[in-house]
Amino acid sequence: AAKKEGRGRASAFDASMLQIIEQRELLRRSLRIALERDQFSIEYQPIAESDRLIGFEALLRWQHPLLGQIPPAVFIPMAETDGLMSEIGRWVLENACREALNWPSDYIVAVNLSPAEFLVSGLTDRISQVLDSVGLASDRLELEITESVLLERTVNNLDTLNTLSVLGIRIALDDFGTQYSSLSYLKNFPFDTLKIDKYFVSDLETNTKSQAIVRSVITLAHDLGMEVAAEGVETAEQADWLRGLGCDRLQGHAIGKPLPTQAIREFVAGSGFMLKTVTRRPIIPD
Ligand code: C2E
Ligand code: MG
Ligand code: MG
Ligand code: MG
C-alpha cells in the first residue's frame, strides 16, 4: 500500500470519507422518520439504594432497519442539531412515566434531558401535563441534566429548575466531574441528586486519586443536602468502596444492566426487590 501514493491513495481516502458522510446522511434522514416508524424503544437500568431497588433510569434505544442498534451518543447529538430532540424527548418522557405505573408505587423513574430539550420554552408546562395525563406523582420523576445544559447560566435556567423543583420533580446533575464541574452550579441550582461519573468509579479500587475525589464529592454533596449516586459500578469491589464512602445510590452493571420493558416488568412482578447484602452478582441478571 505504501508504494501506491498520489492519486490512488487520495481516492481511497476520499472514498472512505464519502462513505462516512453518506452514512451520516443516511442516519439523519432515517432519524426523521424513526419515531413514526416505531423504531425507538426504552431500556431501563436499575438504581439501587443500600439494600433495595429504588427505581430505574430510562435509556433510549434506536434500532435502525439496516444499520442495527445506533448508540444514543451518536444519534442524540444529530437529533439535537436537526431540531428533533424535543419531540423524541417528549416520547421518552411519556413512555417512561407510563411504564413506571407498572412498578412498585415508591419506585422512581429517571429521565435524561438533553440541552435542546431543556431549553425549549414551555418545558415545565409540558412536563406537568405529561405527569397529569399519565397519572404519575411528580415525586416519582427524576430529571437528569448535565452541566452543559447550564452553560448559559441564564435566569431562565434557574427559573425552569426552580419551577420543576416546586412541582415536586427531582433533579439530578448527571456525569458530574467530567465537564465544567463549576461549584457555582451546586451553589445556585436546586439539585436533589449528584451523579458521579463512571470515570471516577472505574478505577476506584486501585486509584487513590479517584478515592480522594469520590470521598470529597460525597462529603460536599451531603453537606449541600444532596444525595449522591455513582454511575458505571461494574464490580462488587467498587460497590463496597462506594458504600464504605457513604454513597447513597449505585448504578452499573454490578447492579444490573439496562433491560427492555418486558424483562423489568417480570422482575418487579416476580421475586422480592430486596438486594443481597453486598452485590456479589447483579441484582438483575442478564
Ligand atoms: P447517561 O445518562 O450518563 O447514562 C449512563 C450510560 O452508561 C448509559 O449509556 C448506560 O448504558 C451506560 N452504563 C450503565 N452502566 C454501566 C456500566 O456499569 N459500565 C459502563 N461502561 N457503562 C454503563 P447509553 O445507554 O449508551 O447512553 C449514553 C448517554 O446517552 C446517556 O448517558 C445520556 O446522556 C444519553 N441518553 C440516553 N437516553 C437518553 C434519552 O432518553 N434522552 C436524552 N436526552 N439522552 C439520553
Ligand atoms: Mg443519565
Ligand atoms: Mg451519566
Ligand atoms: Mg454519561
UniProtKB/TrEMBL annotation:
It comes from the Bacteria. Residues 24-272 form the EAL domain. Transmembrane segments: none annotated. This is Diguanylate cyclase (GGDEF)-like protein. It comes from Rhizobium wenxiniae. The chain holds residues 267 to 552 of 557 of the full protein.
